[in-house]
Structures are given as C-alpha cells and as structure tokens.
Design a protein that fits this description.
The chain starts with 9 loop residues before the first helix and ends in a 6-residue tail after the last helix. A five-stranded mixed beta sheet has the order 3-2-1-4-5, sandwiched between helices. The protein is α/β, with parallel strands linked by helices. The protein has 13 helices and five strands.
Amino acid sequence: MAIWERHWSEHLAKQAVWLSGLLDFEQAAEVLEKVAQVPIGSKTVWRLAQRWGERAGSVEAVQRAAANAAPDRQQIVPGEAMGEARLAVALDGGMVNIRKEGWKELKVGCIGQIELQPTRDKATGDVLDLAHTVENTYVAHLGGPEVFGQHLWAEAQAWHWTQAAETVALGDGANWVWNLVGHHFYDSQQVVDWYHAKQHLCQAANLIAGEGTPAAQHWLNEQATLLFEGHADQVANSITQHAHRKRKAAKELRQHAGYFRDNQRRMQYLEMRENGYPIGSGMVESGCKQFRMRFTGPGMRWSRPGAERLLPVRAAILSRRFDAVWAAVYRPPPN
C-alpha cells in the first residue's frame, strides 16, 4: 500500500472516489475540503479513483466472464424470476478524447424495466399510456463491440433477462448495434429509435425541397405519417424517386433510402407503441450525455487507462449502485 493511502479511512476514500465519478478531480478535492473539512489535493483524489476504479473493473471482468461462460441460454442458471416483467435494452455511442489516439467511441448500454405511464402525445396533445423505462442501469466500454457486448449481456443477466416476459432492443441504424443485438438479444423485438429515423427523414426532406421551405415541411409531414404507420418501404421508394431527379444529392438520398429499406422490420412504430413498447432510445441517449458530462469537459483529454478505470465508477453512480460496488471492491487493510 502506498504511503499516502495509509492515513485514509474507508469512508474518506469512498467519498473521494464517489466524487471523482461526479466531478473533475480538482472540483472533487475542493468539495471534500470545504464540506468535509478534509485537506486533499486533486492528485490524491485521482490516485484513489484510479486504484479503486481499477479494482471495480476487475470485479466487473469476473462477473462478465461468468455471465458469458454458458454456451447457450438453456444452461444459464435462472436467478430470481422476473414474472411478468418487460425489459428493454438500448445501445448508443459517444466520443471521448484519448491522448495519442484522438476521439474514440465510448459505447454505452442501458437496461431498464418497461412501464406504462400517462404521457401527453406531442402530435395530438392527447394523454396516452405510453411505454417508458424505469430503474435504468448502465454499462460503458471504450473499445470494440465484442467486449462491450459481453459487458451488456452480463448486465442483462443481472436483470434475469431470460426470465422476462417480453424484451425489446433499441438503437440507431449502426451495423454494430444490430450485429450485437442479433448475437446476444436475438429473441427480442428490435426497434430503430424513432428520433434517429425522423432525423434521417428531415435530412432527406432538406435535400429534396430545400432546408426550411414549406415544400420540405409538407413532404416531411407526409412521409413521417407513413413511417410511423409502418410503411418504411414507401418512404424509401419516395426518396429513391427523388434521387433520380436530384443528381447533386443523389448519393446522399440513396443512402437515406437504404437506411429505411434495410431497417423496415425495425420501424413498425405504431404497432410497437400499441403493444406497449418504447419506440425511442432516450434512456441510453440520456446515459451517453451523462457519461460525456464527466469525460468531455472543456480541455479534457484522457489516457486510455485513466478513462477505463473511471468508467466503472461513473457507471455505478448512474446505475444507483455505487455503495454495492464499493462493498464488493473494498478490502480493509490489516491492523
């Protein structure tokens, strides 16, 4: 044990690590000094976060290996039965600045329980019982989809995913998302996030009729209705027809058409909403924003090990289980 650690009680070390997952290291040190009357430098907070974050990552790796060890789902030992629970998983990515590497994608996954809640429909103004996710938990990985998928499947197992009554996977149109879903969550419903799909539609409208024009808005409204009703193929056909007439924008329009054509089966929005499923991946997009708040502040650049050690801390905080993670990693020094 380093000399600087010997004078730290478990409580103070825990608070320093917790704060480091919320604030930058200088701010964490300032809070400890002003609120807890504990004089501490930012470098000491950083060392504590690195030490205990690395231990949290090691525990996470053991859990991940155990969850992914079973060769198929039939051999996974069931945990507490989920009964009629309905679960959702959502995947997304954000960028983090890594020293000597540049901006790298941080993959984020979220799992939550689906719950119907009274919600005002933005289109009609009516109050409807719409699906939302609650008790969301998060995982994050700075690297490729394979290990990230193992992280996410381990989290799904903690939720007793295979015992859930119904499950759904949400994401944008990225190939890695659906490849991963097909591997780990192959028997779940699949939905392309409505807002990502609408964004593609808006971009196509601007290319077809000019940004901000009444014609663009008219085409957008017409196609959005078709898309929501499950007619992504008709949307793709309309965009393709315009691509024949818009030579300068033809390449981009064909790409948008392909997006809708390739994901048609994942764009049954009206049907999914009527069946009580969420059609937006706001649960994971919110998580991505929360991770970015800690890792992409002004001027922030991370060493890869530094970021990787802090990720389990941040994920534990966002998942409201920091105390449980700390209990699993802390080993008091011998007397």
